[in-house]
Amino acid sequence: MPGELVKRTRRAAPRPDREHGSMSVEMVVLVPVLLMVVLIAVAGGRYVSAEGMTRAAARDAARAASLERSAPSAAAAASAALARAQTASADCTATTSTADFRAGGSVTVRVSCQVELADLGLVLLPGTTTITAEASSPVDTMRGTA
Description:
The chain has a three-stranded antiparallel beta sheet with strand order 1-2-3, covered by helices on one side. The protein has one domain (35-138). Helix content is 40%, strand content 20%. The longest helix is centred in the first third of the chain and has 45 residues, at 22-66. A hairpin with an 8-residue loop joins strand 1 and strand 2. It is of the alpha+beta class. The chain has two helices and three strands; from the N terminus they run H-H-E-E-E. The chain is rod-shaped and about 120 Å long.
């Protein structure tokens, strides 16, 4: 169309961008930090879970021991209860105190579990940590003991 002005758009010459590639640098710095935060949260969850399982194992072992009629069978019952406990494949040992095993007395069980943390790959965490729990259960006053 004659007489019409034709606008020409002019593109500016590309300027060098100083932030070119900065997202890659940010990701290289940020990903390891986020990964470490996640692994610390996993380690904390593993510790809390193992602590709860250790307490439950000690409680169940003490209760099983208190239902027996003699001190040797109480110790055996505590060991059997610990073997049945769900301790997430942790290496657990129990010590049963039957010194007060009599009608109206109590049985005390101390459970120690080794929890693996080395597989998380965090340098600031120990390879294994020990969690200990203790529970007592009363022996029934009307129960006959040997």
